[in-house]
Amino acid sequence: MNRVLIGCDGTDIEQVAAVAGRAEVSLSEEARKAVARARESTERAVGGGKPVYGVNTGFGRLANTIIDSRKLDLLQRNLLLSHACGTGSFMDEVHVRVMMFLRVVSLARGRSGVRPETIERMLVFLNSDIYPLVPVKGSLGASGDLAPLAHLALPLIGEGRCRRNGEIITGREALEILGLKPLVLGAKEGLALINGTQAMTAFTAMAFLEAERLADAADCAAALSLEVLMGTDAPFREELLALRPHPGALRTACNVRNLLKNSRIVASHVGCDRVQDAYSLRCVPQVHGATRDALSYVKRVISIELSSVTDNPLLMEDGSFVSGGNFHGQPVALAADHLAIASAELANISERRIERLLNPDLSGLPPFLSKNPGLNSGFMIAQYTAASLVSENKVLAHPAAVDSIPVSGAQEDHVSMGTTAARQAREVVNNATYVLATELVCAAQAAELIGSGGGHGEGTARVYEAVRNRVAPLEEDRQFDRDIDAVARMVAGGTFSRLLAELTDQAS
Fold first, then answer.
1. Which residues are the active-site residues?
2. In this structure, what are the phi and psi dihedrals at residue 351, rounded to the nearest 5 degrees?
């Protein structure tokens, strides 16, 4: 998908992925007309002199302060400047692009009252190599992502800072490069630019896409680990899982069966005296599957949010503006918290499988998968790092949405903390990616030590080969961070998702 056309019905997760990949974005004629009609209604509201929040009044606790009609443009400019109070490191380009895209999508619904030229100005930035510098911290998630979106919008009026090819430039310099003049905001436009959930939604949507790929890699890693640890595939039988048919468990079990199909390694120890495997092997469908079910919930929330209008006040069909709470990030906050918890569990169980691979008392393999243990430490410290990431995830998975701090003179007395939840989810997914990469590297090394001799299953053979295409077998100690990083990039890039999809197609 090289082009994305914004209509009047919002967007979807596939378009978000395309925009993250630098697809060009444009506004449909239908959306342009809807925006123009909404602007006409806004102008009528301004001309009527009736107080409308954010159009001709102050903000927050200052909502009862009526603004002189001659100063409405200044009101909107001041709003952007005063709300740009973010702090911390800057968001990366991908998240800024997605956030700007999502804000345009919401405005294009024709319920916010901005001018078409304001949206077109945003699209010029979105389709360029210049993106605003937006600090990651400072949003309460209600009224929307005020601080991040204010930073996002500042370059439109020639303020703020941007990045171009690694160089930081001013908002005014960015406009000059793009051949534009600073935008003079009309009534309601400043508020419309910043009152929404686009920062938290951008982070959550991107974390969700990465978590989907993580879940697929987890199934691949578990199957290879079970195989090289001489585990049984009996707990993955379709009949057994159908007795407790959670959708995620059924899908994970099917994936593992496809991966282990025709495995001579598994068949070689059928009838051995081991009664049952440890939970980290036997309960993979239930644990991985619960994460998959959580991801289904997260996807439903994100899908609704991507097609929603999250401004305030919003224009009704009768031409009136109504103040409500569509900007409140609670739905996304809860989904992001759930995403963090679910992703953390994939890392938790993966780290336990890493322990079983490295511990000779549990695996029957040489200590730490080293061919010459003692002189060589093998993958001993790789588990230390995995354990560190798992421990950090337990802190990051503490739900952010259970907190709230009243602001704006107690007018805004309950907030979602959704952007904190979303940023935490993103970090958990990233940590879990490296834990799963470590398991894949270790499981591939265990395959060398059991002398698999090509006896892998139809899918696990491909998992092993994929890892070996990036990481050589361990003969003597070496620096392992590059090996793990290489496989982590495979996980994040969807290598194992594509592998599973091909196996599923072959099985159907």
1. 53
2. -60, -35
